[in-house]
Amino acid sequence: MLHEFLSANRGDIIARTRAKVAERPAPLATEEELERGIPLFLDQLIDTLRLSTLQPPHGPDAAMAKGATQHGRNLLRGGFTVAQVVHDYGGVCQAVTELASETKAPITPAEFNVFNRCLDEAIAGAVTEYMSTREQSLTHEGAERMGDLSHELRNALGAALLSFQILKSGSVGFGGSTAAILDRSLRRACALVDSSVAQVRLESGIRATEQVSLSQFIEEVEVGAAMEASALGLTLTVTPVPPGIDLAVDRQLLGGAVTNLLQNAFKFTHPKGHIALKTSCTQSRVLIEVEDECGGLPPGRAEELFRPFERRGANRKGLGLGLSISRKSVEAIGGEIRLRDVPGTGCVFTIDLPRLLPPP
């Protein structure tokens, strides 16, 4: 078994990895990393590989998913940077591969496949935990400023760059967790840019009112939203909009508001859940609704969600500004947002806007 091979050759693998890490040009190796970090990385991989031999529900996927996040959290809290974590796992991988080849160890391809998956999950877990830790470290007082949004953007792009470098090295595949981190990081960066643009326009009072076809607008929103829902394993349905319904609004502000509501729905809807984007209209009003399956809200919490920095549920990622910006954006273009709680099911966010009537 591979975990037995690693345990039996633990000292040799640690020595080889230390030599590789010490020669690394950047980031420079630290004494703590060499003395404590590398043995810890190896022991965590041994433990995860051992657990991966168990049967479900404690088999490979459960062990790696749970262990990787916990390992990443422990290492980052211990003062290791995410770059050190990523590079040191790579050093362990190289040392193990070299030793197995030199000793002609009887390790099957299937075991090496599990080993590579362990590394992939461990690296992805460390990067994910790094992003989460960095986001939570931003103070509420400074988070309203654009500078803090730029910090979040840098974190998302930094995680994306690290993930891309790992994928480019060929040590993990494009269908694994590291590729998923890259995808989520880039989407996060796009969402931050959209929020930043909306906030700047709101604070500066810039408006660019134009005639917007509701059917074309919803089609544009659906393209990106459908891709993201699919990537997250969620189902999105969009009701068709008949032609001839127009709005007089700032397209960017409305687009940012609807996108934020959809992002909120994707974030909190239960796994394999359903999100609906619906539209309806009367002679004078247009309603755009986003329904999620978050499970509903505690009593009295509905209005609190629109406060800046308010986050619901166990998912604490992000600045908590999306719904606040959505409300301000919709109000700036002459509409309002309402929230209806469906206990035990989810939430329905409704954007209510005046309809552009044709000239008499």
Can you walk me through this structure?
- The protein is an alpha+beta fold and 360 residues long.
- It folds into 2 domains: 2-150, Globins (Globin-like, Orthogonal Bundle); 209-354, Histidine kinase-like ATPase, C-terminal domain (Heat Shock Protein 90).
- It is 59% helix and 12% strand.
- It has helices at 2-8, 10-22, 31-51, 60-77, 82-103, 109-137, 140-143, 146-169, 177-204, 214-231, 251-268, 322-332; strands spanning 209-213, 235-238, 246-250, 274-281, 285-291, 336-342, 346-354.
- The strands form 2 sheets. The protein has a 5-stranded mixed beta sheet with strand order 2-4-5-7-6, with helices on one face.
- A hairpin with a 3-residue loop joins strand 4 and strand 5 (285-291).
- Helix 3 packs antiparallel against helix 4 (60-77), helix 3 packs across helix 5 (82-103) and helix 5 runs antiparallel to helix 6 (109-137).
- The longest helix is centred in the middle third of the chain and has 29 residues, at 109-137.
List the SSEs and their pairings.
Layout lengths: L1 H7 L1 H13 L8 H21 L8 H18 L4 H22 L5 H29 L2 H4 L2 H24 L7 H28 L4 E5 H18 L3 E4 L7 E5 H18 L5 E8 L3 E7 L30 H11 L3 E7 L3 E9 L6
Parallel strand pairs: 2-4
Antiparallel strand pairs: 1-3, 4-5, 5-7, 6-7
Helix pairs in contact: 1-3, 2-3, 2-5, 3-4, 3-5, 4-6, 5-6, 6-8, 6-9, 8-9, 9-11, 9-12, 10-11, 11-12
Keywords:
single chain, 360 residues, alpha+beta, Globin-like, Heat Shock Protein 90, 2 domains, five-stranded mixed β-sheet, two-stranded antiparallel sheet, 12 helices, 7 strands, 12% strand, elongated
